[in-house]
Specification:
single chain; 279 residues; globular
Length: 279
């Protein structure tokens, strides 16, 4: 932390695997990066006992403002951003760890507007999205014509709803395309699995959730890693294709490298007021 630079107080909403990782990093390494833990909230408060000091546990999420956080990180469920996102942004910067929440048109519109009005930043972590800043620059320059994100995981790594859950049962013997189409239609069916796609949509607002194409693939031959591929195309035949292989424990929703990516994202969350920022 540079001399004279104030500490950033961080609130963590959610205490699953990713929330636990972030809380531990904040307690172990936060001070040397100018960060300190303001509070931790979890729907099941019993999971915090014996792990998070009592003075850092937040009983009611609606009481978050009493802890004076500078940035709040959601790593719980898309419904948190939809219900509490406006309140968070009026008081602090807000990192949406479940950007599938923004597939709801009203939620995205409201959070963008509150960020502009309040001067606080709506941060979108890149997570498992490789080349997000490059996609963003192409989009800002009017050069991005199409974007496709393909995510491939073992069938047991998915948490799917609706007809995709039924289709998943047929994907345990062979590689199966579960979905191919606009990301907006996929987010409500796989809110915990396609945050990478949602981040891509936010990086490319000219295409957005309706214009970015998402492909979700189940492959029983991938027991210990996830694969994320992106293909961006521009004028004159320009194209870029990336393939990210992310080690993951069996049945894990989130790949191992994504944990460190979230921490790296948090370290750059300072000084971007009043906008939506891919970090």
């Amino acid at each position: 932390m540079s001399e004279g630079q104030s500490r950033r107080r961080v609130g963590v909403v959610g205490f699953g695997h990713l929330g636990q990782y972030l809380v531990q990093r904040l307690r172990d390494d936060g001070l040397r990066h100018g960060l300190e833990l303001a509070f931790v909230w979890n729907r099941d408060a019993s999971k915090l006992k014996g792990t998070v000091p009592a003075e850092l546990q937040l009983g009611k999420l609606s009481d978050f403002s009493e802890r004076h956080a500078d940035i709040i990180i959601e790593v719980a469920h898309p419904c948190i951003a939809q219900v509490h996102g406006e309140s968070f942004l009026r008081a602090a910067d807000f990192m949406v760890g479940s950007p599938t929440a923004l597939a709801d048109v009203g939620t995205e519109r409201k959070l963008r507007e509150v960020a502009r009005q309040s001067g606080h930043t709506l941060y979108i972590p890149s997570g498992a999205l490789w080349g997000g800043q490059d996609i963003q620059r192409m989009d800002e320059g009017g050069m991005l014509q199409a974007l496709t994100v393909t995510m491939t995981k073992h069938p047991d790594s998915f948490r799917l709803g609706g007809h995709l859950g039924e289709l998943l049962q047929c994907a345990r013997q062979e590689r199966t395309m579960l979905y191919e189409g606009p990301v907006r239609g996929l987010c409500p069916l796989a809110p915990n699995n396609v945050n990478t796609m949602a981040a891509a949509c936010m990086a490319a607002p000219s295409l957005g959730f309706d214009g970015v194409k998402g492909c979700l693939v189940a492959d029983p031959n991938l027991p210990d890693y996830h694969v994320v591929e992106t293909e961006a195309t521009g004028p004159g035949g320009f194209s870029v294709h990336t393939r990210r292989k992310n080690p993951a424990a069996y049945r894990a929703v989130t790949g191992a490298a994504t944990f460190a990516a979230f921490w790296s994202s948090l370290l750059v969350c300072r000084g971007h007021g009043g906008q939506v920022y891919l970090c």
